[in-house]
Amino acid sequence: MFPNFNIEDVVSVNKEKCYDYGDVIVMWIPDSLRILDESYRIYRVVALPGDTIIVDNNHCVINNQRCSLRFVKKLLDPDNVPMEIEEEILPGPQRIMIGIRPNSPYPEMENMPSCIIPQNNYFVLGDNRTGSLDSRYIGPIPIENIKGKVTKVIQK
Fold it and tell me: What's the whole-model pTM score?
C-alpha cells in the first residue's frame, strides 16, 4: 500500500461492516485465492456494491466517471524502484495518493474491462497501483472476507 503505508506499519481496525470509497480495509484471503504467503492484506475500497468499474491504464473509471488525477512527485519506492506519486479523486470525493511505476511488474493488470460489483462485495485496489495483486486479479471481495476498516496507523 505504499506510498500511504509501509510494510512495517501496524494498524488498528474497527470491525464495522459498512464501507465507503477510499476506506482502507483489512481483508482475509482464502487459500484458494492466496498468491502470496499472507492470510491478511490491506487494500483501499474504490467501488461499492452495484457500481460499475473499469481500470484504464491503472486509473479508475467508476460509474462512467473517470477519477481525476494530478501528478504530485517522483520518488523511489521501498525496493528502490522509481515511482510517480499521483493524487486520485474517488467518488465522495475522497482524495488518495497512489503510486505508479513506469515499468509495472503486472502489465496485464493495467487495464480491466467493465465489471459490475455484486451486492455484498467491494472492489479494492492497492495504493501501489502497479505493484498490487488486488481485485483486478482476485475479483470483487465478499463482505465476509473483510475484517474491518483501518482507523489508525502506527508507523514503525
Answer: 0.89
